[in-house]
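Review box. Two proteins, two foldings.
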Amino acid sequence: MSRAVWKGPFVDPSLIKKVEKLKGQANKAPIKTWSRKSTIIPEFVGISFLIYNGKKFIPIKISEEMVGHKLGEFSPTRQFIAHTAADKKAAEGEAAAVGAPKAAPGAAPKAAPGAAPGAAPKATPAATAPKAKEGSGNAKK
């Protein structure tokens, strides 16, 4: 459920004070904040923030496109680490065990032997037919 319109956007009061104080200064140092739940308002445009993500402060410079979003949206709390190489090698090993030769990525499928040169391979009816759903809702188990 979203916030009521009559309440207006939530912005931490201490954050508003810091922005107002910074507007009068020539040297604009970034504002350090833990308030990820604060909404970005038009007064924040052009100001740099250091937003805490639970481990470190992420530097963000506010632009017009960010207005209306939350500060926390621009400071991710989780970092994706790629799947291990062992998983990739196991998947390649299974494909090689099946015995299917690998085609080059993006290569066109080969035509059947004896087919006219330049002719596209024909799709079989089984390959083009939609598959039936497994486990329909009325099946008893």
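Next protein.
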Amino acid sequence: MRAFLRSSNDVSAVVGVLLLVVPIYFVAMSALRYDAPGLHFFDSPILILGTLAIAFAVNARSILSVKLEPEKPPVLKIALLLRIWNLAEILLALFLLGALFAYAFVENFEPRLVR
């Protein structure tokens, strides 16, 4: 039986929180229309979306267990574990991603006049 390595629950939760600080700061300061220090540094979409993707992946890897058993035929077992902090960080990352996409849609949407 071969099992893929998982990171520690506490480590992935702390790394996820540290990674989510950047998008939370950016969304909060942008929503408040506050010109905070360092906001122009966080203005890069690659930085914001990258930290969201990494936080999602780290926490998803912590709650996801994948095992490949070498039987005839090989069996792939996938299990999800209920860890509240990791699930909360995944939901927060998805919420922030949705907020950023909603903002991008609303900001670039122009209504068409129908005659």
